[in-house]
Amino acid sequence: MSHQSDCSSLYRSALVRFILFCLISVSSSLALPPRAALERFCIDCHDRDAKKGDLDLDAILGDGIEKHSETWEDVVKQLTARHMPPVGKKRPSEAEYEQIVKSLIETLDAQPPKLVASPTLRRLTRVEYQNTVRDLLAVEFDAKSAFPTDEISHGFDNITVGDLPPALLDRYITAAQKIARQAVGTSDKPEINSVRVKSDITQEYHVPGLPLGTRGGVLIPQVFSREGDYDVQIRLQRDRNEQVEGMRGEHQLQLLLNREVKSEFTIKPAKDKNYEKIDAHLKARLHIPAGQHDVGVTFLPKGSPVLERLRQPYKASFNLHRHPRLSPAVYQVTITGPYDAKSTGDTPSRRLIFGNGSTDAKAVLTPILRRAWRRPVTDEDLARVLPFVKEAKDFESGIESALAAILVSREFLFRTETKLDDAALAPRLSFFLWSSIPDDELLAQHPLDVEAQARRMLRDPRAKALVTNFADQWLYLRNLDSITPDARLFPDFDHNLRESLRAETSLLFDDMVKNDRSVLELLRNDRTWLDERLAAHYGIPHIYGDRFREVKLEPEWQRGGLLRNGSILTVTSYATRTSPVIRGHWILKNLLASEPPPPPPNVPALDGVISESLPIRERLAKHREMAACASCHNLMDPVGFALENYDAIGRWHAEADSRGGFADGSEFEGVAGLEDVLLKRPELFVSALTEKLMTYALGRGLEASDAPAVRKIVSRAKAKGWKFSEIIVGIATSVPFTMKSSAP
Amino acid sequence: MSTFTTRKSLSRRTLLRGVGATLSLPFLDAMVPSATAAARSVQPAKRISYIYIPMGCDQSRWTPGSKDSLDKLSPILKSLEPVKQHCTVISNLELEPAYPGTHATSNASFLSAARVKHTESSDYYNGTTADQIAAKAIGQQTQLPSLELAMDLMQVVGQCDNGFACVYQNNLSWSSPTTPLPAEAHPRLVFEQLFGDGGSKADRTAALKRRASLLDFVKDDMTRLAKQLGPKDRDRVNHYLDSIREVERRIEKAAAAVAENELPDLSRPTGVPASYAEHARLMFDLQLLAMQGDVTRVITFQLARETSNRTYPEIGISDPHHPLSHHGNDPAKIERLSKINAFHVSLFAEYLAKLAATKEGDSTLLDNSLLLYGSGMGNPNVHDHTNLPAIVAGGANAGVKGNRHLRSEKTVPLANLHLTLLDKAGVKLDKFGDSSGVIGVL
Fold this sequence. Notes:
The complex is a heterodimer. By secondary structure, chain A is an alpha+beta fold. Chain A is 40% helix and 12% strand. The interface between A and B is large, with 64 and 59 residues.
């Protein structure tokens, strides 16, 4: 809700929201809870004189609810979370709580929906751009390295996308030319593609996709737009001393094309530690036909006996000082070509563009324009792009120029909603569910059957975007890349583990989307997804190999469900230790949508006040003794304590003290206790998920007037066993999603 | 050995070497010093550039033998001989904010003169660096406000210097206290940043024309849209149109630069040269091209990274640099360290000679550019930040005289030199980092 995200106003009124319980006076036409309840529970703190947290009930009681719906929505929120009245004051019974909330909601839901303007112009995010280019031209484009990061607000990167700075426009032009060139494949100029392997990837084991029995390396799927000769040059990883680590004896390196060995190289140890030229000979010229091919570079493992050493070896080895590489690793593969280019051949892009072999520019460009601009194409539209074809030296390079123009056009780069009809609703739906443009079926249907389309789209592979784009942001998985646990304390952390952690959570969410399961399975699940690396990290036996598989869990493994996923436990920790505060905040914000306000600006420094040598639980307890900190930390810290059995990279330690509690006075122990509490009132979690999905779907922060729609979706989902698709369909058919967005 | 460049060894044409691609630079044979600045009126330097060397030097072989001039060059600086009339060596500079001595702070504070936050996490904090202050003032006229280069391809991961995040050691240039600008070491990626696909003058003109025509298309598109919108949205579209005009301006700039500046045909280097010296020369050549083509006016270049353990077989040094720098006053080790120091200077001297030989109007690239070559560490054996090696070069048109050795009795903050150089580039600041004034005599 808007007050949840507007931090400054939130803080201003924070106390209100924590201390308030209220009931309402009398507006003759509306059904309100009895004034008596208000007198009993709220007015002591929220009358004209005390006005705690800036809430003066006396001032609004005389009016109808509709005049202060924002305040009342807040009240509902506080009551639903049982935050108000605070523990220690006189509180309603469960039955009374429910009755009061029900009565308020009935009145609020009866209000006519309010029109909330969303921005008319919204630029595609990086992810949307990349998916759109994939669906429009069958070109795999790495938008992440081509464009600057999209700024995040309200938890998502598709909210503040109204800008177009010069640097970005400049890059759009470069990208458009590059994509068009790759799609058509007319250019016979050699292109250079350098692929670098992240330096904290351990390359001692098999890499998925490369032949079994090989070690390390990298697999590069690439579309070759022309047949011809391509140079492949390989460089090895150096450490910070510019030396190649792990060079004991000779090593064999293979260059593969579609899993077939094309070249084999021997790498010999350098004399005098001079590694400059050690990989100079790792190059080959391959003849490659047009189309998509996998270029692989990998080592043959050395047939040495198991290493015998005093200490158990680390799984991670990439860093000279903490855990050195045991064998050489690939740093970069550069593919340059084509030289002596032959035919353009049959690539997915050309099939999509030229289809039946048409040489009529209109026939080629019309379907592309229609999908790129997500609307029917007029003669006037064609007249704008056809000159690019006419001015070119030949037909195909003309099409290439026209495609580049389409890719920088406003209607491609921006979603423009001046009115919300089927033509606007179709892209709304596709960007929500696919983070991409509508397909032909969606564009063709009039009138749009939103529910049927949403269900169809959920079954489409493109719905994977809900995992890779929505869940990635909602659950902070996107932060994993920037998390580097302290190498001294967690020497076994490397990029391989990071990727396995991410995969577990992605597969959990994916399983729910694909099989339309109850969303509560996100909270508690007796299955999870593991590969050998992650299983070893968790201490789960008998999982071998790098293929992820569904695993039926034993209770003593302490896994299953988001709160036990190493990914989330890691992104909510510091580099050196766990943070009950960050974990508590994460749970309140993302699973319960009751985010505490940010710290006040004049927050006292902890340094020197609280000894750093105290255990974290005691330090935080001292911290909560300060009044300025207590109001929020009383909410966050006890929730986070429940996860103390998991360390900063998500490993289980049975001995930790994991007693926790909620601000409603409930107490619990450990992750299981926390999950029990969350599952006891599933509406809270489902509302939070719905609000997040809706923010993402609408591309704007939610407002109080959206709350009735959220409640409707939640109760609809409840009736259908909390199925994920019911929430999606609920949002797609909701008033805020289908309502006209802003005045022209 | 050809590493100590003399006038004789500069050929008329030099080659930009990539793997499998060459690119030739036109070279003027005259290595004669350009007319001294005396005849010209003093004007702000057009560009500014910083070259960083790690781990200080052997000061006993660095400090020039003559007191006020460079008449008697020291062993490390010997290769400056052909260009010394463009150089000023400044002794007794100090980087106080880098204390207590570390490699991380030597690098990070070198251009910020700020005390960085002692942290290994992502809450790192430095000062905005001098080059970025210059970029905001004089870098806006060109296609790239600034260019950040390095020689080490790997981003160091895991443990860096004691308790300091690796960003401090990796990044010289910071556009804000929390925004380190990563440097690029791959010649091809640098090339593409500067010249796109490159090619002949005609190729590059044609490429810019294609960009301009796409831009026209967008402009037309946005202008139509503006007419259909309400006032608030029209405002937004007007911002887009501003952006479009800005990109238009850049393309025009680039097109003018292609037309006015004689650059050779440019073909992209494809790989990284295997030897350090070749790689470094290629990186210097790219900087020269960037200046000559007026693609950027602000450059930082890390010639090697702090704690680098690179060996230099091309000059017969098989010991890694970092351990050598902790020589424990062993004369043999110090001598080897000084050879590495001299080798780095010789690469810089070659670059200066090329800049001096490249005409710009009736002047030269060197006379219109200010360069600072130096380290954030003094004596590496003890990790101090006092008596830093520093050479100022070029800037004749901004009134900087060469062939001088400046040495004050008291230590002078390095920040004073930054303040002075910025001032000569037309950027007026009252204070920078821990500065206490400008170096008036420069």
